Structures are given as structure tokens and as C-alpha cells.
Amino acid sequence: MRKFCYKSGFMRFKKVTAVPIGNPGVSGSTNADYGRVTSTIANAQKKARDMVFQLVLPHLTGCPQVSCVDYGCADASNSARMWTEVVQELGAARVSLLLNDLHFANRERLVENQERIRPRQVTLKEGSYLSSLALPGSVNFAFTSFTVHWCAALVGAESSHVYPHEQGIPSASVLEFAKKAQGEMAHFFDLRYQEMSKGGFFLMINLVRPDSPADTWNSRLFYETMQMILSEMRESGELRLDELPQTLIYPAFFRTPDDIIGAAEKAGFRVMNPDAREIVVIPCAFYEKTAEGTKNMDSFCQQIIDYAFAWSEGSLRAALRCDEARKNLLVSQIKAKYQKHVEKSPGRFQNPVTVQYLLLGK
Question: Rounded distance, CA 192 to CA 196, Å?
């Protein structure tokens, strides 16, 4: 068993307060090289791998067969290393793995990663994480990262959905959205608890809201810039109202660690790691390389644009009400406008993420 490095060198915040913000709920990677452009997410998984080897695998060594699930895995580029190490540790003949996402945009890369992991059996299953994805009591170890902040749909279309805590008392629409998001999280944990076997483990890396968010955290500036671009395009006539009924197309709910823990415990899970309430900041991998001088600013800007649209383009295309050729044109125009904003002030668009590491047991 390898050595466990539990205290990583990332910065930490104190406990925080929940708030809803805008973000996509009908996403799924559209980028052909998702793993490369989301290296910040990959960096966040380093500690998760250590937790798996220290806190999970010692309890699974006696299981004759180990059933695993990766919820919301995209093309599995960011979790492939962890699953490969799990299979090597437990033995391929004992491990089955279900890979899930809303839809698999890059099946070629998914198959490449599947062949890299090489468990006894791999199942690819498309579908929402708000639906049943495995048989009751069948899962020994489940994993998800950067997934549960997505919501199924956005309620209402007013600007106060984005950072309502900075705009006074939340409106009825915002409160309705928050209530819906909380209900979805409760349902999510009920489903996962039903699927988990007794003695099973569920490891999560969750995007959470820090106490004093800067304009760079968790792609905040992306949401605000995109809403501005879409609104301006509608006002100028470049984008017709019937093509995009509302400019808030990214529904999500960034919670606090306490919010997530409370929902998990209510479903019956036990918290297994003592630092579950800590918030960890993962720096922007692209910006760090630029500051070190190993990447130039033009390369940084392109990586930031690739990263943003890798996870958001699916939601944008789903929101547009027009044929595919028109969508392609509009997406190209929107990307070009976003690129101008990034190039004007690239440092503001770096994307550190604030995360919670949560290990649950049944």
C-alpha cells in the first residue's frame, strides 16, 4: 500500500455560507481533448487518489468482487489514473466499473481510457445522476468529481440568479431555484445510498462556495461575461430572441461543505474523513505555468478559452433554438467575443477552484 499524503499544500478557507449561482445543468464535454484542457480538475484529484489508497482500498481487499461507479465522468480522462491504480491494487479480475455521464460526447477518448484502466468489466451508461444508475445494494466504491453543482433546469430568467447574495434580499424566483436545487441534492443522495452496498464508500470532490469569493473563483467571471455577451448580442440583433429565450443558461447551485454533508447524512451516509468541512483551493494550472515562464500569455488565453467551452458548450448548444448550421455560427461568434474579453485582461480569467473532499460510508 502506498504512502498517504493527507495534507496537501493547497490553501484552506473556513466554513462558509450557501448561495445559488448560474451554471450549466445540461452539459457534457464537447471538447475532443477534455483531459488536457481541464488539467486543474486533474490536479484536484491528486489528493483524492491518496484518500482512496488510505481510507477505501484497505476495506475492500477482502471483497471477492468489487463493483465501482464513476458518476459524471465525461470521457474519464481525469479519473483514468485513479481507476487504473485501483484496478492494479485490487486485481483486474475482481473489479467491474460503470462509467456514467449525461451523454458521452467523445466516445473515442472514452474507449481509450477504458482500455487504459482494464478492469474485468466496463459498462458505459448515459443518463442523469438524478436517476438510478446501478442496482440497489450493488456498489462497493463510487466516485464523482465536479458534478453535483449542476442542476436539472433553471427556474426563472432574472439576473439575480447570479450571485444574489450581492444584490440584497433574494427574489421569489431565486428562492424557488434554491429550493429546487436542495431537493435535487436530497434526491441524489437517496439514489446513491440505495445503490451502495453495506460497507461501501462514496468519494466526492465537490465545487463549493468560499466565504469571500473573488471574481476568479469557480469560473465566476465566465458566467458573468457570457451573460453579458448573450444579452448584448440579443440587443444588437446578432442573436434573435426566439433563438435564445433567456441568457441565463447555466443552472447550478454552489453549496457549502455543511450543506452537502447535511444532505448526505440525512440520506443515511456517514462522513468518513475528518477534514470534510475544509475548503481547499486548487490554483489554475494554466496560470501557474504562465507565471513560471513555461507558458506564454497567448497560450494561456487559448487554454482558458478551451477550458471554459469544454464544459459549457454543451449547455450553450442545448439552449439555442435553431438548426445546427446556425448554432455553429453563433457558437463561433460567441467564442470570438469571449476571447476578446480574456485577451483584454487574462489574469482575471484564471480559474482557481474551491473544493470539498468528502468520503462517505454506508
Answer: 6
Please give the full DSSP string across 288-348, using - where no structure is assigned: HHHHHTSS-HHHHHHHHHHHHHHHHHHHHHHH--S-HHHHHHHHHHHHHHHHHHHHHSGGG
pLDDT truncated to tens, each residue of the chain (362 aa)? 333 333 333 333 333 322 222 233 334 444 445 555 555 566 778 889 999 999 999 999 889 999 999 998 888 878 888 999 999 999 999 999 999 988 777 788 888 888 889 888 989 998 888 899 999 999 999 999 988 888 776 554 444 344 444 444 556 766 777 788 889 999 999 999 999 999 999 999 998 877 665 555 566 778 888 888 998 999 999 999 899 877 667 777 778 899 999 999 999 999 999 999 998 888 776 665 555 555 567 777 887 888 888 778 877 888 889 999 999 999 999 999 999 998 888 778 777 788 899 999 99
Beta strand 121-126 pairing with 95-101:
parallel
Residue 347: C-alpha distances to residues 47, 136, 343 (Å): 26, 47, 9
Structure letter (DSSP) for residue 166: G
Closest CA to 27 of 353, 318, 340: 318
Q: Which three cell numbers stand for residue 125?
A: 451508461
Number of H helices, E strands in the chain: 10, 11
> Rounded to whole angstroms, how far apart are CA atoms 161 and 157?
8
pTM of the prediction?
0.81
In eight-state DSSP terms, residue 165 is G
Distance of CA 14 to the CA centre of its chain: 22
φ, ψ for residue 22, nearest 5 deg: -85, 140
State the helix-helix crossing angle for 297-319 and 324-344, rounded to 10 degrees. Answer: 140
| Strands (E) located in the chain | 11-13, 19-22, 66-71, 95-101, 121-126, 139-145, 196-207, 251-254, 270-271, 279-282, 353-361
